[in-house]
Design goal:
Radius of gyration: 26 Å
Number of domains: 3
Number of strands: 26
Strand order of the largest sheet: 3-2-4-1-10-9-11-14
CATH superfamily of the largest domain: Aminohydrolase, N-terminal nucleophile (Ntn) domain
CATH topology of the largest domain: Glutamine Phosphoribosylpyrophosphate, subunit 1, domain 1
Low-confidence stretches: none
CATH class of the largest domain: Alpha Beta
Distance between the termini: 12 Å
CATH architecture of the largest domain: 4-Layer Sandwich
Helix content: 25-40%
Shape: globular
Bound molecules: 5-amino-5-deoxy-1-O-phosphono-D-mannitol
Mean pLDDT: 94
Length: 608
């Protein structure tokens, strides 16, 4: 989603700002802009609709100035236009702002400012900020920003430049992440550490309700009201900055093929097959704590929600503890009942998803316990939860989540094993499950080396006006994940249904040639799923069937059978999802879509 970059130091600011924006491109955006304080006074500003490359072409290559800010915008208030792109400035172009988040009371302030004679140049909520700051400015930039923010309701991560104060960046945060990079005689600002790694690994994470004054040699943080705040400088993880596509044409394909290794990293040191047990140190739960848990609630959005669904089903089945997965945005909207004995798990790749973060805060405000299951180290959800585990996928750059899903599911299976072992799961069954988990990376590698008739299935899907995905039990969230991937990458209308629900509506959509993707591992639901397959086949639908290798009956019913390695049935999502990832990838490729950056989507959704 929107990205922020700032620089103050002695080098030319423009290349640093453009480089930072390029590193944030993976997050998704529709326009970009920058502002640099000029040595002659004043601020040079450029904005363009489209890619950062278009902005780079519009900026004079030798633009002077060593203090500036830059932004990638993902439209919320106002269309995708040059005028709505950030930065925004006051009427004299002396105070310049970039902003991530949404200002809830912008319309009221806008009308008041218009009544006072201010002319607005954009439709954005952000533009009220420079004008409002201007009304408080009497030479003290920090006091003016503080006074303006005292009137603002909403979420923000923002940066402000004053033409009168070259070398100074002011940053403030409320609900939208900001990280300050500490260099030698230079300082940086970004909404995401990826923008900084080329220049420094030493960072300060700004917290909600804080303001920073950033100069080349000095960084000071306070509360928004001016109270003292001390931060220690942290060292960024080595994984930042290691993103390149290598031999692959797209990040998504690379990330699909990284799964044997990313799942191994998630398992490493956590599962003990001989003891039939597991340990997630970050959860800090003793067996005595585990037996007190009376319910588990997963919170997440999109793919992370689907991983939570798989985890909840595994927990109920193996640990016999009631477990549910909740869509984080709905959870917080409905004033949920929080029990102190329920453990909540916030599942998020980015650790920045606003709806999941909102759900975390809702649990916390009601006295509940929430632990993170997060990929990005040091992200807001990881820090807000305080305790939790990292899934160790490594950086996931493609907007469509793939390796994060399998690592989230792996982490939730590890938790299931711990919880189940503290209850009714026997040593023997636990050992079998632990061994099964440890074998998964090899099965994933074997499948990816020989993925089966994906191109044939893609031909059916890309000609379709609609496709249905179905599965039962743990295969239902896998079907949902497959449909989400196909929608977001290939824009093919499709939906996922539990097999049993098919007769209650979606069967009306069945007609000759209609592609139906069925996920049917060799588990206790297999027979009933085969019956559902007969029902759709009888209506002329063509079946793309993901089945366990050796299941000849399922294969024989399929138009396109895709075999995956046999696993413990409960672990099957870790292999059955793989063909669905490849189907979506290949379909998007065949249709010429932008695979790593699908339209309208963002890698981390930092607005509600
Ligand atoms: O970073 P998160 O895991 O919290 O993101 C949640 C969803 O926005 C994300 O999974 C989204 O659905 C993906 N684009 C799916 O591929």
């Amino acid at each position: 989603m929107c990205g922020i970059v700032g620089y103050t130091g002695s080098r030319a600011a423009t290349p640093v700002l453009l480089d930072g924006l390029r590193r944030l491109e993976y997050r998704g955006y529709d326009s970009a802009g920058l502002a640099v304080i000029q040595p002659t006074g004043g601020v040079a500003m450029r904005k363009e609709v489209g890619r950062v490359a278009a902005l780079a072409r519009a900026v004079p290559p030798d633009l002077p100035g060593s203090c500036g800010i830059a932004h990638t915008r993902w439209a919320t208030h106002g269309g995708v236009t040059q005028a709505n792109a950030h930065p925004h400035a006051d009427s004299e172009d002396r105070i310049v702002v970039i902003h991530n988040g949404i200002l809830d009371n912008s319309e009221v302030i806008r009308q008041r400012l218009i009544a006072d004679g201010v002319t607005f140049r954009s439709e954005t909520d952000t533009e009220v900020l420079p004008h409002l700051i201007r009304t408080f400015y009497d030479g003290d930039p920090v006091a003016a920003v503080r006074a303006a923010l005292a009137e603002i309701r909403g979420t923000y991560g923002l940066a402000v430049l004053f033409a009168d104060h070259p070398g100074l960046l002011i940053a403030a945060r409320n609900g939208s992440p900001l990280v300050i990079g500490v260099g030698e005689g230079e300082s940086f600002l970004a909404s995401d550490p990826h923008a900084l790694v080329k220049y420094t690994r030493r960072v300060i994470y700004l917290e909600d309700g804080e303001l920073a004054t950033i100069r080349p040699d000095e960084i000071a943080t306070t509360t928004l009201q001016g109270g003292g705040v001390n931060h220690t400088v942290e060292e960024l993880e080595a994984v930042y900055g290691s993103e390149d596509k290598g031999e692959f044409p797209h990040f998504m394909l690379k990330e699909i093929h990284e799964q044997p290794e990313s799942i191994s990293r998630c398992l490493r040191g956590r599962v003990q097959p001989r003891e039939g047990n597991a340990r997630l140190g970050g959860f800090d739960l003793s067996p005595a704590d585990l037996v007190r848990i009376d319910r588990v609630c997963m919170l997440g959005c999109g793919t992370s929600y689907h991983a939570g669904m798989v985890g909840a089903m595994a927990i109920e089945r193996l640990a016999r503890v009631p477990a549910v997965a909740e869509i984080a945005s709905e959870f917080r909207t409905r004033n949920p009942i929080i029990s102190p004995d329920t453990i909540h798990l916030a599942v998020s790749q980015s650790g920045e998803t606003a709806d999941t973060l909102g759900a975390v805060k809702e649990v916390q405000v009601k006295g509940g316990r929430v632990l993170g299951v997060v990929n990005v180290v040091g992200s807001t959800i990881a820090r807000t939860c305080g305790a939790g585990v990292y899934i160790h996928s490594g950086p996931e750059v493609a907007v469509a989540s793939t390796k994060a899903f399998t690592s989230q599911v792996t982490a939730l299976f590890i938790f299931t094993l711990m919880l189940a072992r503290s209850r009714s799961l026997s040593l023997h069954d636990a050992q079998r499950l632990a061994r099964g988990l440890m074998n998964i990376p090899e099965f994933v590698r074997a499948y990816l080396a020989s993925p089966g008739p994906i191109p044939e299935a893609v031909r059916l899907l890309t000609q379709a006006r609609y496709a249905l995905f179905m599965g039962r039990g743990v295969s239902f969230p896998v079907a949902k994940e497959g449909a989400l991937k196909l929608k977001e990458l290939a824009y093919i209308p499709c939906e996922a249904y539990p097999c049993g629900e098919m007769k209650h509506g979606p069967i009306a959509m069945m007609e000759p040639g209609r592609p139906v993707v069925v996920v049917v591992p060799d588990d206790e639901h297999r027979e009933r799923t085969l019956s559902n397959m007969q029902e759709v086949r009888a209506r002329g639908a063509v079946l793309i069937v993901v089945h366990t290798r050796g299941d000849d009956e399922a294969a024989a019913m399929a138009t396109i059978p895709i075999a995956v390695p046999a696993t413990d049935p409960v672990l099957s999502p870790l292999v059955t999802v793989l063909p669905l990832q490849l189907l979506a990838y290949q379909a998007a490729l065949a249709l010429g879509k932008d695979i790593d950056r699908p339209r309208n989507l963002a890698k981390s959704v930092t607005v509600e």
